[in-house]
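Lecture 7 notes. Example A: sequence first, then its C-alpha cells.
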Amino acid sequence: MIKIRDLEMLEDLSLVFDNKIVLYGAGDYGRRALMMLSQLEIPVYGVCDSDETMWGGAIKGHKILSFQELKEIYQKEHVSIIVTMGDPDDIEQVLRGLEGYGMLEVKCYTYFALKFTIEFHINDPRINDSYRKNFFNARTAFWDYSWNSRVNRARQVVYSSMLYDAVLIWQVGKVGSLSLEKSLRKRNIRCIHTHRLSSDGWMGPRRNMPSKIQSDVGDHIKLDLLNNLKQVKIISMIRDPIGRSISNYFEFCNMDGYFFGANKDDGDFDIYKEINGFLRTETQIDEYGYMFEWFDHEIKEICDIDVYEYDFDRERGYQIIYKDNIELLLIKTEKLNDCQDIIGQFVGVEDFKLVKDNVGNKKISKFAYDEVLRTIEIPEDVIDFYYKGNKAMDHFYTESEKEKFMMKWSKR
C-alpha cells in the first residue's frame, strides 16, 4: 500500500523545494497550501480532487485534474503528491484511489508535513525573507491571542461553574479528557474543560513561552472557586508520562507549531531529537516532571489539596478526595474504562458509558505520530527518570504497570 511519508519531509526541506508537487484536495487545506507555496515561489504542477463535479474547474488559477489526468502527469513527471485533506480517513481513501489507478510508486505527504516542514526550517536561506517576516508576525499575533483567551478562559471556567453547577474537567493535557467531556455531554451533564487555572510562571520559562503568558490570574480564580461556589466537582486524570509527552508534542504542532522549529538557526531538523528533547524538558520541570508537578501548581495552588497526601488506589486506578466544598475524582487514563461506574456515581448518572473517541486518529498529524510511536528510541535516562524511583509516579502506578511501560518504550 502507498504510505504517507510525512517524517521524511519534516526532516528534509529539499522535498518541498526540489520535488514537482501536485496537490490532492481542492478544499480549505488545498487553498491554504496553494497560498503558502505561492508565497514561497514554489511551483505547483496541478491540483486534483475526488469530486468529479470539480474536474475541469479551477482553484487560484490551477486547473482541477481528474484521476486520469493526474496519472498522465505522474507517468511523465514522477511528481510528489501532497494530500491536502484534514481527515485521515479521507486521506487513506485517496491512497486507495491512487493505487487503483496504478500509481503505486508515488510519494505522498500531507498538508501537515508541508506546513510544518516550512515552519521547522523557517530560518533556512531557501525560505524568502518576506515569508519569514510574515511567519514571525503571525506567531506574535498568535501569542497575543493566546494570552487574552487564556485569561478569559480561566474566568469563563469559574463563572460557568457558578451559573450552571458544572463539573470541572481539569487536568494536564493529552490524558483522554476530551473523550470524557464528550461522554458527559452526551448524558446532558454540564461540564467545563480546562488544563490550567493557575499562573503559568512555574512552567513558562521551560516551555520557551513569552513572559507575557506568565500571569497572576490564578489568585483571583482561587478566591472565586473556593468562596463563591457551594460545591465544586472536579475530575482530573493521569497518564503514562512518556506517552502523554509524545502526544503533547504533536498537539502543539496541531496548534500551529507552538514553539518548535522557528528557534533554530541552522535549518537542521530531526523530529526524533526534537521529541526526545521535549521529553527531557518535561522531566526537568521541578522534581518529578511536568505532569506530576502539575497537581501541585494547579490543584494544590488553587484548591489547597495536595493529592500526594492521600492514598491513591493504584490497583483500582481512582480516588475521590473530599475537602471543604470540593470533591475531586482522580482517575488513571489506563483505567478509565474500568471506572465508568465510578464516574457515573460521581456525576449522578446511572449506567454511564464512555463514548469511544480516538481523537488523535482524526488529526492531520496522525501519520507522522503513528510512525514516531512505532520507531522512536526513548533515551534511557528519560525512562529511568519516570519508572525508577520517581515518587510521584510510584504514587499512582504499580510496579507491574511501570514494568509494562518500560518494556513498551525500551522495545528497541
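Example B, a different protein, same format:
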Amino acid sequence: MERILHLVIIAFLLVGCRKEELKKIDGPLLSDLNGKFSVITNLKASRDSIDFVTNESIFFTAEFSKVSSWKLEIIGQKSGAIKEINGVGNKLTNSETTWDGSTTLFPIFQTEVCSARLTFTGEKDTLLTTINVNQPKINKGFVVADFESALNSGWSSFVQSGANMDFQVKSNNTAPQGGGYLNMAGTVDWDWLIGLINFKATAYGAKTFPLSSNPSNLYFNVLVWGEPSLNNSLVLFQFQEDENGDGNFSSNSEDMYSHQITINWVGWKLISIRYNELVALVNGTPAAASGNGVFEPNKLMQINMLHLANPKSGFAKAKLDYLIFTENKPLQP
C-alpha cells in the first residue's frame, strides 16, 4: 500500500512538472506564426528629414500581428537609388533599420525626397512613408575622377581611330554618382586597345597622390558599367610608383602594379581592391615587379586606365565612374 501511494505522488509530480514546462516553452507561439496577418503600428520614420553630412541618423519602426519575412526599401524619387533592408520578426526596430545614407542598388542617393516601402512575403499589405534627404552621404577618401565635367586638362588620353568611337564624358540620369560618367565604346579590329586615360598626380598639384603609406588598409574603388548583350570589354588599371622621387617613372627600375577587370555583368557594379593585392603584369601574366617589389602607395605618381577588347570580338562598350581611394575598408556608397 505504501508503494502504491509513492507511485501516485510521483505521477502527480510528473504531471505538474509537465504543465510548468508547457508554460515555459521558448520561441514564438503558433498563433504568431500561422495567425491572420494585420498591421498593429504603421511604418514610421524616426524623423521627417535627414542630413547625413552632419552624422544624423534615421531608423524606421512598425509592428504587425505575426512573425513575417519583411523587406524595407528606401527609394530616391529623383535619383532612383535604392537601399534595401531585410529581416524576420513581428516588428521593425532601430537596431535593424538604421540607415546611414548608403546605397544597395545604384545610383547613389542625392538631395531628394525618398519613399520608404515595407512589404511582407506572402502578404498583400504594403506600408509607405516618405523622408527628405537634405544632404546625402559623403564618402571619405581621395577622389581621382568623378567625371562631373570634361576630362581634366592635367590628364592625358588617347583614342583609336576605329569605327563608332565614343570615348568621352557624358551627363545624364544613368550616372551612378552625380550626373556624369566616362563612356567608352568603339570597334577596333587591329588592336586590343580602344582608348586610355592617364590620371597624373600633377593634375592634383603634387608629384604623387596624397595616399597612405600603408598598402594593407588602402583600397582603390571604381564603378563599372557592363553593357547588355556585350561581354568583351576589359578595363586595365596600372599604378606607377616613383620610387626614387625624381618625378618620372622608369618601367625598367620602378614598380608598376596592375588590376585587370573582365566585364561580364550587366549594369553598374562596384569594384574594390586593396592596394597590396595588386599584381605586376607582363602581357597579362603575373610577373616580378621591376623595382624594389614593395607596395608604396604614397609614391604613386600616375594611374593608367586602358579600355581593351579582343580585336576579333567586334564592337565593345563600357562605362566608368567615381574612381576613389578609401582607407580601412572598401567604398560603401
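Note on Example B: Residues 32-135 form a domain with the Immunoglobulin-like fold (CATH 2.60.40.2550). Residues 214 and 297 are 7 Å apart (CA to CA).
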